[in-house]
């Protein structure tokens, strides 16, 4: 009896000590990162005048070139559409080949590392590389989105595959159907709703990403954004930002309504 | 007599340290309806899974499984063509294993995938004739009017009947059923067993069904094979399963087991009253 009480007191003391240590660690990390980022809230107050002046330059927005900006925004959306679509097409086989319930480790390990690499490097970096390869313009941007998004979607798709039930696939297998039929009839119906939802979400975020691809020569509205900012034409920049905000909001809403139908 | 359609010889299977099957062997003749009984963990499911090559036997043992005159596995290696062989062998699971988001009709049509041309199978282009056959199969299990519904809207008993329709669509000569009624209520269980019996009698299909409850074995199957701790304990006419033998079969089994099977008096009374 007494022995158990002692051990339980011991255990709870140990747990609270561990708890304390965990908090100390967390605070330590925060302090360390604060230092690294050169956080300086005072600068916000000290330079308030500068910021007010800069903000003032954005108003009133200049709507003279609105047509051009809307055209550029449409190109941006077109980049996102093809970048995402190509990525979905390639991510399907890649995700199946990186799912541990479908293929042996010597297939899924290399495939996963390849997808990690696609994901690890930002779209902007890929865009710079593709500008060198295929020249300035929206095609380079589309390819950049395509490669990066393939890495992202393959991971998310394969997570859905690994969370699927084995039973339905086994049910198809015992009828004598082949491996491909097993996937098409036993697996895809299970994961399709999630795949659609994830793809649409990725389309939304690709529109946001595509708005800056132009800064490195990847085409779309980013080109105009970069030019007006470098030329200190902030009234024009304000118009571009408005166009981006409206377009992104509308497409987010559209894609969400579509997404809701699949969940 | 009629020809041997399932032949199992010297089958042993070990999972890690656990010996699940030990030197099991038996023959089943075409057209028989055989019950496979035994307490939980006696190896019934593992045995059935071996017959379609979902599981392979121990490599070292000199095991051999033949189904309908063709080798499925020998010494723990699946043999070439065992996949096409599955087309001739229907399998029914305790958990039904339907594809919930597909329609009932598609779940039945899937039974034909293995014997269709590859491109039609992959695109799911079933012919009108195949669709008509699938509807016929559904009618035989009494679910013709549910063809267009999604499979996950059905009750357990209905799902199991769809699984049987899938086997009918396969045109399988042998039907292996792994605890097909274990998760069903008594009425659905009787319906499912009645359908299996009808397929056995009217179409002459061989049926091997593993059962939790001895009473169902007695009612539906002339022959029973019993496993105890992975070994063949009994193989013969179901009437030969005397109370003493059942006691011995289920001794040391869990409470659930003994209540359902080793003391079958109450269960049998309930069944008799309901039918």
Automatic annotation (TrEMBL), chain A:
Record's keyword terms, sorted: Cell membrane, Membrane, Transmembrane, Transmembrane helix, Transport
Membrane-spanning residues: 16-34, 79-103, 124-147, 183-203, 210-226, 232-254
Domain ABC transmembrane type-1: 73-255
Signal peptide: none
GO CC entries: plasma membrane
Domain of life per record: Bacteria
UniProt-listed Gene3D superfamilies: MetI-like
Localization terms from the record: Cell membrane
GO molecular function, one term: ABC-type phosphonate transporter activity
Coiled coil: none
Membrane topology per record: Multi-pass membrane protein
Main location: membrane
A Pfam family matched in the record: BPD_transp_1
Family the entry assigns: Belongs to the binding-protein-dependent transport system permease family.
Protein's UniProt name: Phosphonate ABC transporter, permease protein PhnE
Organism: Billgrantia pellis
Gene name linked to the record: phnE
From TrEMBL, chain B:
Pfam families, per the entry: ABC_tran (PF00005)
Topology class, membrane: Peripheral membrane protein
ABC transporter domain sequence ranges: 6-254
Cell membrane among keywords: yes
Gene Ontology MF: a single term: ATP hydrolysis activity
Superkingdom per UniProt: Bacteria
PROSITE patterns the UniProt entry points to: ABC_TRANSPORTER_1 (PS00211), ABC_TRANSPORTER_2 (PS50893)
InterPro entries attached to this UniProt entry: AAA+_ATPase (IPR003593), ABC_transporter-like_ATP-bd (IPR003439), ABC_transporter-like_CS (IPR017871), ABC_transpr_PhnC (IPR012693), MetN_ABC_transporter-like (IPR050086), P-loop_NTPase (IPR027417)
Keyword terms, alphabetized: ATP-binding, Cell membrane, Membrane, Nucleotide-binding, Translocase, Transport
SMART domains linked: AAA (SM00382)
A single cellular component GO annotation: plasma membrane
Subcellular location: Cell inner membrane
Tagged with keyword ATP-binding: yes
Name this polypeptide is given: Phosphonate ABC transporter ATP-binding protein
Organism, scientific name: Billgrantia pellis
């Amino acid at each position: 009896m007494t022995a158990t009480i002692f051990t339980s007191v011991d255990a709870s003391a140990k747990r609270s000590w561990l708890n304390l240590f965990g908090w100390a660690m967390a605070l330590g990390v925060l302090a360390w990162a604060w230092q690294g980022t050169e956080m300086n809230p005072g600068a916000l107050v000290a330079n308030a005048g500068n910021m007010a002046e800069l903000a003032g330059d954005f108003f009133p927005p200049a709507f003279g070139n609105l047509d051009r900006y809307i055209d550029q925004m449409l190109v941006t959306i077109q980049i996102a559409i093809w970048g995402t679509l190509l990525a979905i097409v390639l991510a399907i086989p890649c995700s199946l080949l990186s799912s541990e319930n479908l293929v042996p480790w010597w297939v899924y390990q290399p495939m996963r590392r390849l997808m990690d690499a696609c994901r690890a490097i930002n779209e902007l970096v890929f865009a710079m590389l593709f500008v060198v390869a295929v020249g300035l313009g929206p095609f380079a941007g589309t390819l950049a989105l395509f490669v990066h998004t393939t890495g992202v979607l393959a991971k998310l798709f394969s997570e859905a595959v690994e969370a699927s039930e084995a039973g339905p696939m086994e049910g198809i297998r015992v009828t004598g159907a082949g491996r491909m039929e097993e996937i098409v009839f036993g697996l895809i119906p299970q994961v399709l709703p999630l795949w659609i939802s994830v793809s649409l979400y990725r389309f939304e975020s690709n529109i946001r990403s595509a708005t800056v691809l132009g800064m490195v020569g990847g085409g779309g509205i980013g080109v105009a954004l970069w030019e007006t900012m470098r030329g200190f034409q902030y009234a024009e920049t304000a118009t571009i930002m408005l166009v981006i905000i409206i377009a992104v909001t509308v497409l987010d809403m559209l894609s969400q309504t579509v997404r809701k139908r699949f969940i | 007599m009629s020809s041997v359609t399932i032949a199992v010889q010297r089958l042993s299977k070990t999972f890690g340290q656990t010996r699940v099957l030990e030197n099991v062997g038996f023959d089943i003749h075409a057209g028989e309806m055989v019950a496979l009984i035994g307490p939980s963990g006696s190896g019934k499911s593992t045995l059935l899974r071996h017959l379609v090559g979902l599981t392979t036997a121990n490599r070292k043992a000199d095991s051999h499984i033949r189904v309908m005159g063709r080798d499925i596995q020998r010494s723990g290696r699946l043999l070439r063509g065992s996949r096409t062989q599955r087309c001739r062998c229907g399998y029914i699971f305790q958990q039904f294993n339907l594809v919930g988001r597909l329609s009932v009709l598609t779940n039945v049509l899937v039974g034909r995938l293995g014997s269709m041309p590859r491109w039609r199978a992959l695109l799911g282009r079933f012919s009108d004739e195949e669709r008509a056959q699938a509807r016929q199969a559904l009618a035989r299990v009494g679910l013709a009017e549910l063809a267009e519904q999604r499979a996950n809207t059905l009750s357990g008993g209905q799902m199991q009947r769809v699984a049987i329709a899938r086997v009918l669509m396969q045109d399988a000569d042998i039907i292996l059923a792994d605890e097909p009624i274990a998760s069903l209520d008594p009425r659905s269980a009787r319906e499912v067993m009645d359908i299996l019996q009808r397929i056995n009698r009217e179409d002459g299909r061989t049926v091997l069904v593993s059962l939790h409850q001895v009473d169902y074995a007695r009612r539906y199957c002339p022959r029973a094979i019993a496993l105890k701790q992975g070994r063949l304990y009994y193989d013969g006419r179901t009437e030969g399963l005397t109370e003493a033998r059942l006691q011995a079969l289920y001794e040391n089994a869990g409470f659930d087991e003994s209540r359902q099977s080793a003391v079958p008096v109450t269960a049998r009374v309930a069944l008799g009253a309901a039918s």
